[in-house]
Write a structure and sequence with these properties.
- By secondary structure, the chain is of the alpha+beta class.
- It has a single domain (2-112), classed as Alpha-Beta Plaits, CATH 3.30.70.120.
- The chain has helices at residues 13-22, 70-81, 109-112; strands at 2-8, 29-35, 44-46, 49-51, 56-65, 89-95.
- The chain has a 4-stranded antiparallel sheet with strand order 2-5-1-6, covered by helices on one side. A two-stranded antiparallel sheet has the order 3-4.
- Helix 1 packs antiparallel against helix 2 (70-81).
- The relative contact order is 0.31.
């Protein structure tokens, strides 16, 4: 089992969710977040003074999948989020030690769905 975290551009969310749906990956948590990467935010000029280090609006996707869906999930996110411009985002894949479904008490791969 793996826990996939993706940070993407907000305007790419609908495309990513559509592709995930087509790949039968339905269980997704989405959060609006702020952050910056190598581009270090957007430099703006305000009243003649350059301000840097702004935090950019991003979207964080969190998806728990069984091992056979890891590459499918990564490919779907990449396909939907890629614009070939700086700031497209990142995908992190973590080992998921355990998963519990609260309603049924199921544990492990079955609980992920």
């Amino acid at each position: 089992m793996r826990y996939i975290i993706a940070i993407i551009q907000p305007d790419r969310l609908d495309e990513v969710l559509q592709i995930l749906e087509e790949k039968e990956i339905h269980l997704v948590t989405v959060t609006n977040v702020l952050g910056r990467g190598r581009q270090k935010g957007i430099s703006e000029v305000y009243r003649g003074h350059k301000e840097g280090g702004r935090l950019l609006k991003k979207v964080k996707l969190e998806i728990a999948v069984n091992d056979e869906y890891v590459q499918v999930t990564i490919d779907a996110i990449t396909q939907g989020a890629r614009t070939n411009h700086i700031g497209d985002g990142k995908i992190f894949v973590l080992d998921l030690k355990e998963c519990f479904r609260i309603r049924t008490g199921e544990i492990g791969k079955i609980a992920i769905g």
